[in-house]
Design brief:
alpha+beta, four-stranded antiparallel beta sheet, 12 helices, about 20% strand, globular, binds ligand BES, binds manganese (II) ion
């Protein structure tokens, strides 16, 4: 460890308790972007981020209003000749439901076994807070080696529409000029094995409504004579995959960039225990596309999933009806080579062609489509990230591929020409999007140190 790192490490150690208290306050704000009734909490979380950026020593920090949730911008510019890093993160969180499966309240953080439990602990408030405290520690010890800009949004969990629009407007580009984007919103293999992500899947989605008769009907008086839209919907969904678990949308696999044998080997060499994976999920067998390993199915193959399905009567007791309508939400994870808009158009046509007689289908695209991302490993910033993990975790990081999506990353490249470093500190056991979300406080502390080490290596390598 360098002197610089030891010096800031001492500051972090001395102030750790306060850092965790502050994170706890952040986690008490139910900033759920999917639920409109939480709009005031969205505003509150944005204000919180702004105030903490100022308290950490930013030159300025302010909200940027949008049609939906505000962006938070902050910066500390020390010397235009030094590299500038644009830190991105999100202050919104997923809905906490189902409440009954939480062992403590989702917005009343508790610390157990050195993990902090709350919605957003790992995704993404805990990881975002790492960056604010890294700035504070570097400024407190007069050891900031780079310029830093922060761009924090409040609707990543619902598709980043406002930020996408913001980046599409060239008038906003000068403010965000930087050398690289830095994001902590993904995971790490384990506390013993550091890793850096080299790809993210893209995402797109739609909602479908099947309509049969113009109103709910008595299933005795009409049963057998008219089409039931729930049956029609189930039939359609069943046809979206074949026996080999491939997606049947025409053209779905066209133009997908195949990995080289070496890249595939590298992917499969990541420490991964299939037995433990199955056991931890309570399933007898992992299931997916024929011809690919579990890590490949998650990391490099595109998928389609039905996220929700509803219709008819689901209350207590019996209600003998043929429902008028049935609904489903569908999302797709995309990989390099696939064009999200083309895939969505093909899916829409395909769904219409599969719709059985006696029902009508309505297809609504849910939000913006987002491309997959490939990280360029051949950059100074990627080398700086590798060095930082080596310094703080004592081991060379492996390269990993993320099955999830961070919608805005491909847009940073498209509109600002910026590469991204995905410096994630989450674990599979963090339960993101699930009850009992938590974040390791060891990872919180090491995360701060790793980010600081990254800035020093980036400045050193850029000379
Ligand atoms: N932080 C996650 C992305 C992620 C998931 C990283 C799993 C590593 C492992 C992000 O907040 C997220 O959940 N993204 C959504 C985007 C969607 C709502 C448009 C996703 O992937 O579902
Ligand atoms: Mn996230
Ligand atoms: Mn998320």
């Amino acid at each position: 460890m360098t002197n610089t790192n030891t010096n800031t490490a001492a500051y972090i150690d001395a102030n750790k308790g306060r850092f965790i208290q502050e994170l706890t306050s952040f986690l008490t704000i139910p900033s759920i972007s999917a639920q409109p009734e939480h709009q005031s909490h969205i505003q509150q979380a944005a204000q919180f981020v702004k105030e903490r950026l100022l308290a950490a020593g930013s030159d300025e920090a302010y909200l940027i209003e949008t049609k939906s949730n505000p962006l938070v911008y902050g910066e500390k510019i020390i010397d235009p000749k030094l590299p500038t890093v644009l830190v991105y993160g999100h202050y919104d969180v997923q809905p906490p439901e189902p409440f009954e499966l939480w062992t403590s309240e989702p917005f009343e953080p508790v610390i157990k076994h050195n993990h902090i439990f709350a919605r957003g602990a790992s995704d993404d408030k805990g990881q975002l807070y790492i960056h604010i405290k890294a700035l504070e520690a570097m400024l407190a010890r007069q050891q900031l080696p780079c310029n830093i800009k922060f761009l924090i949004e409040g609707e990543e969990e619902v598709g980043s529409d406002a930020l996408t629009h913001y980046l599409q407007d060239a008038n906003n580009h000068p403010l965000l000029q930087a050398d690289v984007v830095l994001i902590s919103d993904t995971g790490i293999v384990s506390t013993e094995q550091p890793s850096i992500d080299i790809s993210l899947r893209g995402i797109t989605g739609l909602e479908i409504t099947l309509t049969g008769p113009n109103r709910d009907l008595h299933s005795g008086s009409y049963g057998g004579a008219v089409s039931n839209p729930i049956h029609a919907l189930c039939k359609i969904i069943a046809l979206l995959h074949n026996e080999d678990h491939q997606v049947t949308i025409p053209g779905f696999y066209d133009n997908i960039a195949e990995l080289t044998t070496a890249q595939r080997e590298q992917l499969n060499n990541i420490p991964f225990d299939l037995e433990a994976y199955q056991q931890s999920l309570g399933i007898a067998q992992a299931v997916g596309e024929k011809g690919y390993t579990t890590l490949e199915r998650i990391g490099i193959r595109p998928t389609l999933d039905v996220n929700g399905i509803w219709g008819g009567y689901t209350g207590v007791g019996t209600k003998t009806i043929i429902p008028s309508k049935a609904h489903a939400k569908i999302t797709l994870r995309l990989v390099p080579g696939q064009d999200p808009n083309k895939i969505l158009d093909n899916l829409s046509d395909y769904l219409t062609s599969l719709t059985p007689e006696g029902t009508r289908i309505k297809v609504e695209k849910s939000s913006q489509a987002h491309q997959s991302v490939q990280i360029n490993e051949d950059t100074i910033a990627f080398q700086a990230a590798k060095n930082a993990f080596q310094d703080i975790w004592g081991k060379k990081p492996v390269s990993t591929r993320v099955g999830g999506s961070i919608p805005i990353v491909s847009t940073f490249k498209e509109h600002l020409g910026l590469d991204t470093i995905l410096m994630g500190f989450g674990l599979d056991t963090d339960n993101i999007h699930s009850p009992n979300e938590n974040f390791s406080l060891i990872h919180f502390e090491r995360g701060i140190q790793t980010v600081i080490a990254f800035y020093h290596h980036l400045a050193g390598l850029s000379k």
